[in-house]
């Protein structure tokens, strides 16, 4: 029994649904090996440093794992939602939520906007380097005063002169931006028109553009290896070609990505949940108290059985919804259900599992302690549970 | 030169094997299966030979249940050019014995005429370490087992092997059989674009009957049992106590 081990001898994995094709099973095997050899042995140090080495992105890029949402013409493989779900689930099983966040914000939550609404010129300029891991992306939409309520953004962009060729000047600030400290390319949401959702646009802003500064590298409750920034934009000048997806069309571009993002958070919930149960099964089957193992206590078995069943249900809905999304069916109800409930189930799971680890689970350095901290943000980020439940309520 | 690499689908090295309730073997139902790690090393070595210009084509062969085509696809995704699946069993629990495998491989080799066969030194399921040697005997080819390093010099393969006393270097005239040891190389990842390309590479499906080889087992498994669980040890306070226990309890002094 080693509560600090990241991969116990006996695994807990739910079988794949029959519709997961062979190539995605092979993808899973490769990502799993990558997690075991390239992430798990090093990520404790990244948690300490608060930074993930750029080399990790390059290695992922060389294996084609950063281009699943991008077209083949730009170095990607255009795989769809099911592939991203497999990828996100396996990364989540690393037990390092911060690493999962840094990678998937790059692949599925920022550069994906560029693929969806970018011009061929914008794609040609950025996507090959994004797929290779040479350029790391961040999505800079959230502000101190506007999170899940995207329509309330205050950062402004104005044209510096008449005509469509004029430069844009961006002023404002952004909060809680994953990859915002060490990333290279920010996709910034800014107000270009009137109040509300109809006045927003997106811009491609290299982080080294004069006037962009990191106000602070934020200290967080979890996700310690992932960098999170507060950013200032002071008279930031970008060319007309930096406008992404049309003037005042930003909200729609962001909305188009919501379903995929929410699905990904469901995949994290399933992956982290199953991994927490795996670690806990290993612990309770060996840890003894009052003359028998904790697993021999019926209360332990019943608790873990219930948690495992709930994770299996979240996972089943995530996979089913990914299939539907790839089939072009509308899934806004399903993805809102997944985003509202997946992280709540995960919260139960990680805290239930920490409880079964006893005092050991409260110690820094055990995966379950880190997982309990890392899981907390999933109930907030990408649309808080309460906001998501309203999205569900609107549709039932 | 064409290189042929046999690959076996085995229980994944990460899985803790469990014995079937009736003791007839290891339970493989719903268990994760992967390419035998030594075969993966053999595939990697063949790809490296191709990258160095010492080989032109890599053919991978698997013998067993239909699902072994997943194993072949993995080899194709790593970089093999084409695959041959020889279906020889319906039940995932049926193991084809080394002699039958060697006979089937000989039949494939007679057709394919490779200049070199690189195989894993053994499969991690039954650890027989026999197929490569039997195949060499059936073909009348030279063999170099447990290779830790392979160099091709004209029609000769220079093979370094780890032996008890140190390293031994052999020269075998090709065509030859080489079996791969753990330290020969570290197999690459299959990149996602290569996984997608592997779907389009040719995979020929054959059966044991196509080659006229009888795969009926010659061996009978009498029983399969889990290794006995290790009992917890005891801590002693002093050397005196240890000696006393060794004398009086263990009876070894």
Describe this structure in words.
The complex is a heterodimer of chains A (396) and B (253). Chain A is an alpha+beta fold and 396 residues long. Chain A has three domains: 115 residues, Acyl-CoA dehydrogenase/oxidase, N-terminal domain (Butyryl-Coa Dehydrogenase, subunit A, domain 1), CATH 1.10.540; 110 residues, Butyryl-CoA Dehydrogenase, subunit A, domain 2; 144 residues, Butyryl-CoA Dehydrogenase, subunit A, domain 3. Chain A is 48% helix and 14% strand. Chain A has a four-stranded mixed beta sheet, covered by helices on one side. In chain A, β4 and β5 form a beta hairpin. In chain A, α4 packs across α7, α5 runs antiparallel to α7 and α7 packs parallel to α9. The mean pLDDT of chain A is 95. Chain B is α/β, with parallel strands linked by helices.
Based on the structure, what is the oligomeric state of the protein chains? heterodimer
Q: What is the level 1 CATH name of the largest domain in chain A?
A: Mainly Alpha
CATH topology assignment of the largest domain in chain A:
Butyryl-CoA Dehydrogenase, subunit A, domain 3
Quote the average pLDDT of chain A. Answer: 95
Structural class of chain B, please? alpha/beta
Spatial strand order of the main sheet of chain B: 9-8-7-10-6-1-4-5-11
Largest inter-chain contact set? A-B, 23 and 20 residues
- Estimated radius of gyration of chain B: 22 Å
Total helical segments of chain A = 11
Quickly give the CATH architecture of the largest domain in chain A.
Up-down Bundle
Give the N-terminus to C-terminus distance of chain A in angstroms: 47 Å
Number of strands of chain A: 10
- The counted number of beta strands of chain B is 11
Shape of chain A: globular
CA-to-CA gap between the ends of chain B? 63 Å
Just give the CATH class of chain B: Alpha Beta
Q: What sort of overall outline of chain B do the alpha carbons produce when their principal axes are compared? A: globular
Kindly report the CATH topology of chain B.
Answer: Rossmann fold
Pfam families (chain B): ETF (PF01012)
Function (chain B): The electron transfer flavoprotein serves as a specific electron acceptor for other dehydrogenases. It transfers the electrons to the main respiratory chain via ETF-ubiquinone oxidoreductase (ETF dehydrogenase).
Keywords (chain B): Electron transport, Transport
InterPro entries (chain B): ET-Flavoprotein_bsu_CS (IPR000049), ETF_a/b_N (IPR014730), ETF_b (IPR012255), ETF_beta_N (IPR033948), Rossmann-like_a/b/a_fold (IPR014729)
């Amino acid at each position: 029994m080693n509560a600090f081990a990241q991969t116990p001898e006996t695994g807990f994995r739910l079988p794949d649904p029959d519709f997961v094709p062979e190539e995605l099973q092979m993808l899973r095997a490769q990502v799993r090996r990558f997690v075991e050899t390239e992430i798990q042995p090093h990520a404790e140090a990244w948690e300490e440093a608060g930074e993930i080495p750029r080399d990790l992105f390059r290695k992922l890029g060389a294996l084609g794992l950063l281009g699943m949402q991008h077209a083949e013409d730009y170095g990607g493989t255009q795989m769809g939602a099911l592939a991203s779900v497999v990828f996100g689930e396996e990364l989540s099983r690393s037990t390092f939520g911060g690493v999962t966040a840094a990678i998937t914000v790059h692949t599925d939550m920022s550069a994906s906007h560029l693929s969806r609404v970018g011009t061929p010129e914008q794609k040609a300029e950025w996507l090959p380097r994004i797929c290779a891991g040479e350029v790391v992306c961040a999505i800079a939409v959230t502000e101190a005063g506007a999170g899940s309520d995207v329509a309330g953004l205050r950062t402004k962009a104005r044209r510096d002169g008449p005509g469509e060729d004029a430069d844009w000047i961006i002023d404002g600030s952004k909060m809680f931006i994953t990859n915002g400290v060490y990333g290279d390319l920010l996709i910034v949401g800014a107000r270009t028109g009137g109040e509300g959702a109809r006045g927003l646009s997106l811009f491609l802003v290299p982080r080294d553009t004069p006037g962009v500064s990191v106000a602070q590298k934020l200290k967080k409750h979890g996700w310690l290896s992932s960098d999170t920034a507060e950013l200032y934009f002071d008279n930031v000048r970008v060319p007309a070609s930096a406008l992404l997806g049309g003037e005042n069309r930003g909200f729609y571009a962001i909305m188009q990505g919501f379903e995929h993002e929410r699905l990904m958070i469901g995949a994290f919930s399933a992956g982290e949940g199953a991994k927490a149960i795996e670690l806990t099964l290993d612990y309770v089957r060996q840890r003894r108290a009052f003359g028998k193992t904790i697993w021999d206590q019926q209360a332990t078995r019943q608790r873990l059985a219930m948690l495992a069943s709930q994770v299996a249900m979240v996972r089943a809905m995530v996979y089913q919804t990914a299939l539907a999304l790839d089939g072009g069916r509308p899934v806004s109800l399903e993805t809102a259900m997944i985003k509202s409930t997946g992280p709540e189930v995960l919260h139960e799971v990680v805290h239930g599992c920490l409880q079964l680890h006893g005092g050991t689970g409260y110690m820094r350095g055990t995966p379950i302690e880190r997982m309990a901290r890392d899981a907390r943000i999933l109930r907030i980020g990408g649309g808080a549970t309460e906001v998501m439940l309203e999205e569900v309520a609107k549709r039932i | 030169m064409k290189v042929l690499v046999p690959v076996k689908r085995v229980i994944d090295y990460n899985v803790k094997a469990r014995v079937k309730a009736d003791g007839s073997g290891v339970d493989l139902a719903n268990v994760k299966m992967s390419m035998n790690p030594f075969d993966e090393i053999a595939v990697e070595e063949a790809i490296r030979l191709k990258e160095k210009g010492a080989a032109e084509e890599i053919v991978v062969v698997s013998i067993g249940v239909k699902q072994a085509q997943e194993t072949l696809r993995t080899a194709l995704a790593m970089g093999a050019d084409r695959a041959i699946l020889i279906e020889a069993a319906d039940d995932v629990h049926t193991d084809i014995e080394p002699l039958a495998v060697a006979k089937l491989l000989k039949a494939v080799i007679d057709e394919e005429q490779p200049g070199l066969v690189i195989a894993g030194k053994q499969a991690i399921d039954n650890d027989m370490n026999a197929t490569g040697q039997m195949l060499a005997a059936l073909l009348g080819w030279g063999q170099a087992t447990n290779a830790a390093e392979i160099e091709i010099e004209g029609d000769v393969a220079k093979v370094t092997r780890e032996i008890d006393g140190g390293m031994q270097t052999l020269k075998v005239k090709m065509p030859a059989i080489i079996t791969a040891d753990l330290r020969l190389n570290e197999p690459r990842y299959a990149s996602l674009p290569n996984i997608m390309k592997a779907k389009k590479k040719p995979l020929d499906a054959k059966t044991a009957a196509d080659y006229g080889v009888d795969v009926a087992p010659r061996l009978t498994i009498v029983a399969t049992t889990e290794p006995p669980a290790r009992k917890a040890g005891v801590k002693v306070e002093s050397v005196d106590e240890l000696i006393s226990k060794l004398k009086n309890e263990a009876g070894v002094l």
